[in-house]
Amino acid sequence: MVEPESPTNRTRVYVDMVGDLFHAGHVALLEAARKFGDWLIVGVLSDEVVAAYKRRPIMTLAERIAVIKACRYVDEVIPDAPYTVTTEFLDRHDIAFVVHGDDISPEAVAEVFGPVAATGKLRLVRYTAGISTTDLIQRIRMSS
């Protein structure tokens, strides 16, 4: 997968996500993340990584990548992103900030973003209430 080159003078921001059944909450997260810089990189977690900590995604990795790449706030996608974000990962991709929804628990912050959070590069943004992939799945089940 070839991604456009970002000029070195850009502030590169990173979000990792599953992006299953891409919805308005995902868009709000990406829009908020983009405000921390001018080049947004989205790491998309593999089906196997996601299945290890929650349910297996409904959409394939390729489908999720295609939809996320189509979002106007996204400049670059990293397939098979790591579950744990390290400072080495940030350095390798020249990332200034990592953004996540504020619905994450302190334990999950420590597990997934520990070293990054310690550097002050983690930014939490307001979680969009009332919409989630789990909610969409429930709506679909109720409508059938």
Automatic annotation (TrEMBL):
Transmembrane feature ranges: none
GO terms under cellular component: cytoplasm
Signal peptide: none
InterPro entries: Cyt_trans-like, Ect1/PCYT2, Rossmann-like_a/b/a_fold
Classification via SUPFAM superfamilies: Nucleotidylyl transferase
Family under the similarity heading: Belongs to the cytidylyltransferase family.
Protein's name according to its UniProt entry: ethanolamine-phosphate cytidylyltransferase
Organism: Micromonospora acroterricola
The organism's taxonomic lineage, starting at the top: Bacteria, Bacillati, Actinomycetota, Actinomycetes, Micromonosporales
